[in-house]
Automatic annotation (TrEMBL):
Pfam families: Ceramidase (PF05875). Zn(2+) binds at H81, H217, H221. It is a multi-pass membrane protein. InterPro entries: ACER. Hydrolyzes the sphingolipid ceramide into sphingosine and free fatty acid. Belongs to the alkaline ceramidase family. Its cofactor is Zn(2+). Its main location: membrane. This is Alkaline ceramidase. Keywords: Calcium, Hydrolase, Lipid metabolism, Membrane, Metal-binding, Sphingolipid metabolism, Transmembrane, Transmembrane helix, Zinc. Ca(2+) binds at D19, W20, E22, N24, E33. It is found in: Membrane. The lineage of its organism: Eukaryota, Metazoa, Chordata, Craniata, Vertebrata. It catalyses: an N-acylsphing-4-enine + H2O = sphing-4-enine + a fatty acid; an N-acylsphinganine + H2O = sphinganine + a fatty acid; N-(9Z-octadecenoyl)-sphing-4-enine + H2O = sphing-4-enine + (9Z)-octadecenoate.
């Protein structure tokens, strides 16, 4: 976490229960944590195009919701790191819970008939979200949120490993890449928290272009944003395979992965 004594800027005193390691208002007077803010673009823009593609492809609404939920997380995180206000912190952290619940629903409904609804699972996840929201608003303890979020991510990891081990082994590349990218982001998130003082001292001694590369919370955004996007692709690939579509991973501009598919034609 950030040491005390950061400067104030356009948004006034910090009211959030968390203040990360990036120096506040160091780049511009209008953005509290500049790099932690702009790094959220990876969670905002690509999922919007994914949602549009899902709508055009006639995919089930839960996959459209998955993409849009990731965009909401990115927008909430943008607002939080730009302002360091408590209300904006909630706009970041609570959608993380809600989006993961959507991901969990998608992963456990991959092998059901098209457009089916699992009301029991839906009720359980909505109830979980309501309980987490209510408790978190009352206790305001970030560790509680992190533990609840971790439980959801662990559930997704276990389900993904089951699928690539017992159902579709040829999806290991996509599944494990998603997991590996996310875990690398989590590692950098911890380094940023634990070694903040050392990182700040290092940044003072090196050119700005090098200092920027040590903004590990920004890298957490980039890597977990990419990992979450790849997870949606993995979930979508699994689903379309089960529905006997012909999914293929393509790379836009040779860089960004998307899934193209077509329904199986009946003869």
């Amino acid at each position: 976490m950030a040491p005390a004594g950061d400067r104030e800027g356009y948004w006034g005193p910090t009211t959030s229960t968390l203040d990360w390691c990036e120096e506040n208002y160091a780049v511009t007077w209008y953005i509290a944590e500049f790099w932690n803010t702009v790094s959220n673009l990876i969670m905002i823009i690509p999922p919007i195009f994914g949602a549009i593609q899902s709508i055009r492809g006639g995919l089930e609404k839960r996959y459209i919701a998955s993409y849009l939920a990731l965009t909401v997380v990115g927008m909430g995180s943008w607002c939080f790191h730009m302002t360091l206000k408590y209300e904006m912190q909630l706009l970041d952290e609570l959608p993380m819970i809600y989006s993961c619940c959507i991901f969990v629903y998608c992963m456990f409904e991959c092998f059901k008939t098209k457009n089916s609804v699992n009301y029991h699972l839906l009720f359980t996840l909505v109830l979980f979200s309501l309980i987490v929201t209510t408790v978190y608003l009352k206790v305001k303890e970030p560790i509680f949120h992190q533990v609840m979020y971790g439980m959801l991510v662990f559930t997704l990891v276990v389900r993904s490993i089951y699928i690539v081990t017992w159902v579709y082994p040829w999806l290991r590349g996509l599944g494990y890449t998603s997991l590996g990218v996310f875990l690398l982001g989590f590692l950098l998130w911890n380094i940023d928290n634990i070694f903040c003082d050392s990182l700040r001292n290092f940044r003072k001694k090196v050119p700005p272009i090098i200092a920027v590369t040590t903004q590990f919370h920004a890298w957490w955004h980039i890597l977990t944003g990419l990992g979450s996007y790849l997870h949606i692709l993995f979930s979508l690939y699994t689903r379309t395979l089960y529905l006997r579509y012909r999914p293929k991973v393509k790379f836009l501009f040779g860089i960004w992965p998307v899934i193209l598919f077509e329904p199986l034609r009946k003869h």
